[in-house]
Amino acid sequence: MTEKITKVDIITSPNRLEDLMDELDKIGVTGMTVSNVSGCGLQRGHKEYYRGTPVEIKLLAKVKVEIVICEIPVDKLVETVKKVLYTGNIGDGKIFVYDVVNVIRISDGTEGIDALR
Amino acid sequence: MEGLNGADVGFVIFAASLIMFMIPGLALFYGGMVKSKNVLSSTLHSYMALAVISLQWILVGYSLAFGPDWNGLIGGLNWAFLKDVGMSVNPDYAATIPHLLFVVFQMMFAVITAAVISGAFAERMRFPAFLLFLVLWSTFVYDPVAHWIWGAGGWLKQLGVLDFAGGFVVEISSGIAGLVAAIVIGKRRRTRPDPHHIPMAILGGGILWFGWFGFNAGSALAANGIAVNAFLTTNTAAAAGAISFVTMEWIINKKPTALGTVSGAIAGLVSITGGAGYVTPGSSLIIGLVGGLLSFLAISRLKPKFGYDDALDAFGCHGVAGIWGALATAVFASIKVNPAGADGLLYGNVELFRNHLIAIGAIVVYTAVMTFVILKAISLVTTLRTKKEEETEGLDISLHGESAYNALN
């Protein structure tokens, strides 16, 4: 297995998901897993109102987008994601990059980069 | 009290309550069809119509619509604040119930009409602009149009136009207003339908069907045979609309959907509203079938072709099926069903059809022009449309500071 397989996790605001997906589509990302998550980081929560009473919401709704790539350069992916999600404010999100040891397609037993094709 | 009939009073009170129940129904219907981040905003549109128009109605609305006639165009302000409107009957409108009960019954029509329009500009209208629109539209469009058709001395009433329960006044006016508002306010950033809770929309649609019995049967304003006929024609048209809509889906898209079935029922209900008390149950079957069919074509063909963003199909459902219903009434009406009505084309009377064409033309043009003017006037005072960031964040949080669903709690 000479080619490197990389997993990129992106955590960001759910409102940005559709824009992100559009851009990922343009650079040829075909597969992803998206989950609704809640979390907190440097961004403080926001205020909502319950029958006139302000309520501090600590955990904010976020989405986690998981992508495993091999042929698309990781730098290109990261740059694209940064460009789409950047507003300069806290809460734009984070990108995590990991090495992947192996990928196995269950239906036919293909392993490694072939399983991504 | 002179002339009061207890059964009629009880019946109309019940019917008015049924119509009020259409507001939560509409809130669920619309709320289920929008994205989860906008459900409270859409819900609030319906409830605000109930709160705001209820007050507008007793202050000036009722008097403008039903007050002493001025040149056939509008009611005078003689009955503003319900001055001189009391417990005794008003034979011009309903001979056996208190005048105030007629006020309440008609109030619910004004409320639901304003609320229906909100489907067209869902997910993108600013709240202050919406509130202004509610008041101005109801005052300058709904009230005069209601006067033309139903007010003593109204010019279309004099002409002999038949509108049993608001086919013109409620359905055509709200549908056309929706179309104009959708175009003036502009498209959402993403117009792909993204209903977040279809069972909710379907429950709302069912409640609308139920409430429509108050709308249509109640419009007899008496517990009599015409009310019963209206009840049956209403249910028949709803059923027929559901069947024709879902059949079209099944043939064209190969899948019969639940939301499509309920949408078809609403189209059927819209199309029978004007004629419910004037046509036979057999005629209502045809009216409903065609209403569902036309609505399907408007929503699935016309809207994509012209590209207007009537988000929840206020025009595709109420406008299109409403205009069909107005024409159909002029075809199928029979004095055998209702001696106070008239015969339609099918029974050899051309005049009614001509009059309905005039009424459709007048109401479409007046509503379109006035809705446009009102929106432009509001835009001079406050912005109509949410900012891009507000729209992407969702109107619930950005405008109202409230979120509908919290997955972790």
TrEMBL record, chain A:
<dbReference type="InterPro" id="IPR017918">
    <property type="entry name" value="N-reg_PII_CS"/>
</dbReference>
<dbReference type="GO" id="GO:0005829">
    <property type="term" value="C:cytosol"/>
</dbReference>
<dbReference type="GO" id="GO:0006808">
    <property type="term" value="P:regulation of nitrogen utilization"/>
</dbReference>
<dbReference type="Pfam" id="PF00543">
    <property type="entry name" value="P-II"/>
</dbReference>
<comment type="similarity">
    <text>Belongs to the P(II) protein family.</text>
</comment>
<dbReference type="GO" id="GO:0030234">
    <property type="term" value="F:enzyme regulator activity"/>
</dbReference>
<dbReference type="GO" id="GO:0005524">
    <property type="term" value="F:ATP binding"/>
</dbReference>
<dbReference type="InterPro" id="IPR011322">
    <property type="entry name" value="N-reg_PII-like_a/b"/>
</dbReference>
<dbReference type="InterPro" id="IPR002187">
    <property type="entry name" value="N-reg_PII"/>
</dbReference>
<protein>
    <submittedName>
        <fullName>Nitrogen regulatory protein P-II family</fullName>
    </submittedName>
</protein>
<dbReference type="InterPro" id="IPR015867">
    <property type="entry name" value="N-reg_PII/ATP_PRibTrfase_C"/>
</dbReference>
From TrEMBL, chain B:
<feature type="transmembrane region" description="Helical">
    <location>
        <begin position="314"/>
        <end position="337"/>
    </location>
</feature>
<dbReference type="InterPro" id="IPR029020">
    <property type="entry name" value="Ammonium/urea_transptr"/>
</dbReference>
<dbReference type="InterPro" id="IPR024041">
    <property type="entry name" value="NH4_transpt_AmtB-like_dom"/>
</dbReference>
<feature type="transmembrane region" description="Helical">
    <location>
        <begin position="285"/>
        <end position="302"/>
    </location>
</feature>
<feature type="domain" description="Ammonium transporter AmtB-like">
    <location>
        <begin position="11"/>
        <end position="405"/>
    </location>
</feature>
<keyword id="KW-0924">Ammonia transport</keyword>
<keyword id="KW-1133">Transmembrane helix</keyword>
<dbReference type="InterPro" id="IPR018047">
    <property type="entry name" value="Ammonium_transpt_CS"/>
</dbReference>
<keyword id="KW-0472">Membrane</keyword>
<feature type="transmembrane region" description="Helical">
    <location>
        <begin position="357"/>
        <end position="378"/>
    </location>
</feature>
<feature type="transmembrane region" description="Helical">
    <location>
        <begin position="12"/>
        <end position="32"/>
    </location>
</feature>
<feature type="transmembrane region" description="Helical">
    <location>
        <begin position="162"/>
        <end position="185"/>
    </location>
</feature>
<feature type="transmembrane region" description="Helical">
    <location>
        <begin position="221"/>
        <end position="246"/>
    </location>
</feature>
<comment type="similarity">
    <text>Belongs to the ammonia transporter channel (TC 1.A.11.2) family.</text>
</comment>
<dbReference type="Pfam" id="PF00909">
    <property type="entry name" value="Ammonium_transp"/>
</dbReference>
<feature type="transmembrane region" description="Helical">
    <location>
        <begin position="197"/>
        <end position="215"/>
    </location>
</feature>
<dbReference type="InterPro" id="IPR001905">
    <property type="entry name" value="Ammonium_transpt"/>
</dbReference>
<dbReference type="GO" id="GO:0005886">
    <property type="term" value="C:plasma membrane"/>
</dbReference>
<feature type="transmembrane region" description="Helical">
    <location>
        <begin position="44"/>
        <end position="65"/>
    </location>
</feature>
<dbReference type="GO" id="GO:0008519">
    <property type="term" value="F:ammonium channel activity"/>
</dbReference>
<feature type="transmembrane region" description="Helical">
    <location>
        <begin position="258"/>
        <end position="279"/>
    </location>
</feature>
<keyword id="KW-0812">Transmembrane</keyword>
